[in-house]
Every structure is written in C-alpha cells, then in structure tokens.
C-alpha cells in the first residue's frame, strides 16, 4: 500500500528507545546489556519511500495489475455464462448427487447432450464384469463410448469373456475381490460381482455371503465417497419359495434364512437393504434390478443352471435331468435384453426394485422337450 501516506524518520536520525510503561510485563528474556541502535524495535524502522506515482491509476498501471484484473473479470464472466451448460442447476432427484456434468436439462438427446457438444465419456465400473452377464454389459457400454473398468476376482468370471477389449484404451481390467475396499474415480457403478449359480453358492457359501454383504458394502461406500450412481443386480431369488404368482416387486417374499441357498437369497436381500440404507441415510443415488433366469453366450456349461445343464446334456446326448415333477415354471430372458434393461434402469429416474425378466413362463418339462426337439 505504498500510496498510503506514511511517516518516516529522516535518514541518520536514530529513533529513541521505546519507553516501557511502569505496568508493562516482561514476556520474554531481554539481553542483559543495553540495546544497541541495531537492536532497536523494528516497528520504529521506517521503509524507504517507493518511487513512482501515488495515485490509483498509477497503482493499477504498475506490474501489469490492470491486465490481471481484466483477466479475472473475463474468467468470472465466462464461468457464469457457461454455468448452466456445465453444472446441474436442478437435479430431478433431490437425493441424487450431481454428476460432474449434467446436460440433461438442456437437450433433447437421450444422453442429455446439447447440440454441438460431444458427450463427455462416462466412467463406469462393472464389478463382476468378466462374468456371463457382466461381460455383455461391458460390450454394450464400450460400444456407446463409455470408459469401463472391470473389477473381477475371476472366481466365476473368465478373462476370455473380455479379452477382445484388452487393446481398447477405454477399457481396464482389474483383478480385485470386492470383499476388499477399492478406490476408483467413476460416475457409474454396476455391481454384479457374486457367485450366482447353484453349484457355487452350494459349495462356496462363505464366499457368496461375504461378496453379497461386504462386497456390496464396499461398493456402496465407494459410491457415497465419490458421488457415483450405484446399480445393484439383485435376483428373483429374494422372493424365495414364493406364495404369490407371479411375483410383483411389492411382494416381500417367502425365504428360509438358514437354508443352503440362504447365502445367495438372504445375501441379496441384505444387499438390497444396504443399498436402500445408503440411499436414505447417505444420499447415494441407487438403482435395484431383480434379475430373473437369463441365458445366452458365455454361460458356463457346468454352473448347474437348468439351461446350461440341458444344453450340455443335449450336446453330449445324455438324458436330461428334470428335477422333481418338472411342473415348476420359470421364465427365461436372453442376455442382451437383460443388459438393455440394466442400462435403461441405470439412466432412468427410478430406484426400483424392478423385476427384469421375460413374462412368458413355461415348465421345466416343456423346456426339456424343447431342448430335445431342437437336438
Ligand atoms: O438340471 C437341472 C437344473 C435345474 N432344474 C430345475 O430348473 C429350475 C431352474 O433352476 P436354475 O438353477 O436354473 O435357476 P433358479 O431359478 O433356481 O435360480 C436362477 O435364477 C435366478 C438367478 O438369480 C440365479 O442365479 C439362478 O440360479 C429349478 O426348478 C430347478 O430345480 C432342473 O430341473 N434340472
């Protein structure tokens, strides 16, 4: 503030030593000898006057200050003009955290991109992305331009399922068990990781329940921390041995908490509970899909599900193993339909839970006959 008038002692004039008032307390040690002029208090040593004009105009013109003022004004103006396009001003879901970019309010494009703008690539994590359903989801996400990180421990997933993406710069494959926490910066989390076939949850119940509980907890914690949207792939098994047919999402189910399938059925029910608790208590944007029986390429032939069993048996010309009287019904959806449903749910404004499946049911006997007929 050199333009402010300040007093300075004339050169060569030694300032008088400070007078200590009689009641002033000594808070620091002082030298035993009398202070020399060099030790005189700094407050009394005056700065030399700065040369140059002492006016506002002079101050602004010095050291390119005016340039910086103009630059600051330009940046502030650009920010406020572009703000409606860059940041969400009105989130449609009040509990949802705003993504970094939100073009939705200004666009007719399904991805919310105003004309003339390229959509920012979305960063997506798919846990269990090397599995049967996960790998098809990864195919579609990459196809639509997203950057995808697959997190998979290869317990049931296979590297071959995603090997065709290894050279894609928008694709990353991480060997990681979701039972352990992980920190990633993404916008979307598709949480699919879990052993899901009868063989696995029968012989690996601890792994199954840990993945459902601790894995889901870790991924929800990540979503909360980074403000990502989280989609849980739950299952029709949350209805247990249902007493209602067909099962609507409002049905609470009929589930055995201590049976051999409980690690999966109750595990997914707990995962749903955690998901809703993180939504209500932590403000995390969540989606829940309850997946019904699904079939398609990359199913493991030996995972014990009815479709893979019947196909394997038909190929080997073995008799088909119809359990019970074969009158139990199931519906079957093709994997690409399921993936389309998962992606639509993720980008919708609805939390769910939503049943994702085929409304057309038939008995296991009919399925076996169909397989035999086609063989
Ligand atoms: O060889 C077989 C296998 C199974 N089945 C019967 O076929 C029906 C379907 O059995 P699956 O194991 O394929 O499928 P489930 O309906 O029991 O569970 C399935 O659906 C929901 C998903 O979330 C689960 O991961 C999946 O296992 C059952 O009634 C089963 O008893 C046979 O009759 N023969």
From TrEMBL:
InterPro entries in alphabetical order: NAD(P)-bd_dom, NAD(P)-bd_dom_sf, UXS-like
Xref: Gene3D superfamilies: NAD(P)-binding Rossmann-like Domain
Annotated TM spans: 66-86
Biological pathway: Nucleotide-sugar biosynthesis; UDP-alpha-D-xylose biosynthesis; UDP-alpha-D-xylose from UDP-alpha-D-glucuronate: step 1/1
Primary localization: Golgi
Biased segments, Low complexity type: 1-11, 32-49
Bilayer topology: Single-pass type II membrane protein
UniProt KW keywords: Decarboxylase, Glycoprotein, Golgi apparatus, Lyase, Membrane, NAD, Signal-anchor, Transmembrane, Transmembrane helix
Substrates-to-products reaction catalysed: UDP-alpha-D-glucuronate + H(+) = UDP-alpha-D-xylose + CO2
Domain of life (superkingdom): Eukaryota
This enzyme's EC code(s): 4.1.1.35
Domain NAD(P)-binding: from-to ranges: 126-368
Compartments, record wording: Golgi apparatus membrane; Golgi apparatus, Golgi stack membrane
GO CC, any one term: Golgi membrane
Gene Ontology molecular function, alphabetical: NAD+ binding; UDP-glucuronate decarboxylase activity
Family named by the database record: Belongs to the NAD(P)-dependent epimerase/dehydratase family. UDP-glucuronic acid decarboxylase subfamily.
Function: Catalyzes the NAD-dependent decarboxylation of UDP-glucuronic acid to UDP-xylose. Necessary for the biosynthesis of the core tetrasaccharide in glycosaminoglycan biosynthesis.
Protein name: UDP-glucuronic acid decarboxylase 1
Lineage: Eukaryota, Viridiplantae, Streptophyta, Embryophyta, Tracheophyta
């Amino acid at each position: 503030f050199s333009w402010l008038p300040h007093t300075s002692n004339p050169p060569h004039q030694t300032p008088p030593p400070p007078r200590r008032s009689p009641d002033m307390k000594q808070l620091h040690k002082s030298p035993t000898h009398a202070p020399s002029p060099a030790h005189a208090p700094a407050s009394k040593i005056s700065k030399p006057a700065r040369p140059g004009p002492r006016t506002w105009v002079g101050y602004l013109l010095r050291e390119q200050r005016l340039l910086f003022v103009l630059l600051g004004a330009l940046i502030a103006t650009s920010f406020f003009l572009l703000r409606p396009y860059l940041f969400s001003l009105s989130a449609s879901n009040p509990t949802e955290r705003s993504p970094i970019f939100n073009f939705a309010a200004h666009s007719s494009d399904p991805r919310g991109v105003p004309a003339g703008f390229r959509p920012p690539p979305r960063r997506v994590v798919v846990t269990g992305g090397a599995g049967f359903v996960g790998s098809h989801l990864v195919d579609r996400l990459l196809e639509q331009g997203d950057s995808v990180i697959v997190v998979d421990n290869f317990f049931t997933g296979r590297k071959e399922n995603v090997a065709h993406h290894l050279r894609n710069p928008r694709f990353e494959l991480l060997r990681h068990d979701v039972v352990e926490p992980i920190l990633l910066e993404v916008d979307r989390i598709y949480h699919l990781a879990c052993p899901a076939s009868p063989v696995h949850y029968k012989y690996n119940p601890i792994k199954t329940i840990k993945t459902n509980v601790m894995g889901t907890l870790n991924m929800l914690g990540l979503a909360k921390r980074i403000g990502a949207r989280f989609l849980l792939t739950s299952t029709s098994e949350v209805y247990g041995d249902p007493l209602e047919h067909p099962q609507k999402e409002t049905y609470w189910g009929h589930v055995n908490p201590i049976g051999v399938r409980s690690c999966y059925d109750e595990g997914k029910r707990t995962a749903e509970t955690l998901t809703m608790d993180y939504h209500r208590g932590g403000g995390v944007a969540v989606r829940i899909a309850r997946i019904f029986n699904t079939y398609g390429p990359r199913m493991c032939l030996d995972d014990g599900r009815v479709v893979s069993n019947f196909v394997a048996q038909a190929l080997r010309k073995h008799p088909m193993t119809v359990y019970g009287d074969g009158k139990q019904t199931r519906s079957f959806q093709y994997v690409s339909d399921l993936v389309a449903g998962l992606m639509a749910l993720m980008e919708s404004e609805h939390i769910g839970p939503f049943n994702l499946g085929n409304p057309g049911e038939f008995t296991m006997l009919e399925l076996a006959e169909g397989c035999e007929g086609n063989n």
